[in-house]
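Re: the request from the purification team.
They wanted to know what the chain is likely to look like in 3D before they choose a buffer screen. I agreed to run a prediction and write the result into the notebook, where they can find it.
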Amino acid sequence: MKDARIPTGNERLSIPGVSESDGSIFDITFLHMGVKGLIDIRGTLDQPLMKPLLVMANETRPITVQSWERLNYWIPQFHAHSGDLKIKGTILTPIGERGFIYRLEFTNEGTETLSFNAGLEGLWHSSWHCINEDKPLDGKAYAYRSGWNEGIVFDFRCGIPLFSFAPMLSRKGVMDYRETEEGIRYTITAPITLMPGETGSLEVFWGIGFEEVASTTSAKEMLRQGYDYELENTLNWLSKRSLTFDDPLIDQLYHINLFFNFFFASGMTLDTEEMVLVTSRSPRYYVSAAYWDRDSLLWSFPSILLVDRDHARLMLDYVFTRQIKNVGIHSRYIDGTVLEPGFELDELCAPILALYNYMRATGDKEYLKEPHIQKGVRLILSRLMEKKHPRVDLFETFLQPTDDMHVYRYLTYNNVLVWRALLNLAELFEGIWPADELNGFVRLAQAVRTAIYEHCVKEVEVGAANTSGSTPGQTRRIFAWSVDLEGHYDVYDEPPGSLQLLPFYGFVDDADEIFNNTVSVIRSPDYPYSFANSPIPEIGCPHAPHPWILSLANSLLLGRISKSLEILKRLKMDNLVACESVDENTGECATGAAFATCAGFLAFALYKAFYKAPQKDTEA
């Protein structure tokens, strides 16, 4: 049976997955500007970085986990038994702290007094540098006694310290370690005695930092604050950003993905304490710890804007400072330098769309006057005009929204984003920029719209017995996926930038004939990536030939409520966290586990479809 994982984390530290079978933690990660990405501290699958330990009468006793819950949808907590002991384990990553707390609570349900030792044991096997690919760090791991925490400290040095982590106990106990061929093994235990019916607990506070003093005092800070304070503070933080949905399933899916996006698509670097944006802080995602304009601003940003406008503004600040010099380039490191080259038109438009959404939500007109915003928008406009066809009012791209190579340079969806961005700019900078310039944006937007209908709408033959009820030889006008302006085009769709989103961006309404013809074609059983006859009938593409979660989000935004709800009931994804694609029959993760920015877009789509006054259902 597959061992499911539950992720958790805070601004500075991520726990990619707690084992549902026994409460083990296999690794912890953090962002590091100096290495341009993520550092991952690991155990092994057989010997995790840490797991609960119970010793009674000099024998290690098994802990049988019976159930899990997520406190306020984010804090993992398990319920278990070992003999007459009832056990509750909680993994808390407190808001605002540089570390986490592993708490074990024991209740004696027997008739005799029980004495035992409890705590954690584990193996620090290796440390990894993660940016898309994972590579072991070349340095030396150390463990030693420290006067700062009356226990042990772990650190990793490459000539100078790179990072450190250290535990502290809530009660008097023993910490031991030894170096082995597999890595550094350790045990952390404290004695507990409970009379019948009595409850007692043990907390292990783990701090991280640049070196010994930083990590040990991070643990000491949480110890001084106390577990109860840290728990209440974090629960309150989560509660203030939570909503209530009528459907318990939607309530659960929304909040799990909202918080996963919040804590795994952004974070604070350990070394420079800068807030940065990434695809995912989990190395389980196959392109982790790097920045994409599209992922962060079109997918992650909207759900953040729903619940934390201050954080949304910090996101924009990061984009318009660290990342702006290479805006529109495929992917970048967290310091803004180029990771993967290649121009993408949707990514160039993304900062404008996010800035507009922020302004609509906050009314913060003064923010538009900030020098970094003014300079960044001007740079985007300059690069946009470089991509315009010399005679036709369409704009080219090199890579498609999947980051794969284009077939033809002029994508319908991408040019709809250009149209939307130009209109947004005209509205955003009214009263700030000259009226003639803003009117020019409107005129160009109108010209782009005309060019889309002139060059990107094609008459195609549709197949037999598809969902639109067409007959062989029948033709319909649809939006092509891409064109070359020389008569060539393709009939296609990609969930990361779908033609289904044209009504969402206001380009057409959902009754538009050409649009509905387009949706009928790409959802037809004749279309190879429709998965129309599968239990999970959502669109895929060659990049990942299974139904995409982004496609489900697109459907929700289009208003396909009842059919999407049927799919949501079947989805397992990555233990309810969004992934790139799912198996078309089982709904389990097929590709792209721990896809944090996708989780944000799914949460946003769930909000738009189901919160309070849901959108009308466009399909029965």
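For the purification team: The chain is about 30% helix and 30% strand.
Please add any questions underneath this entry.
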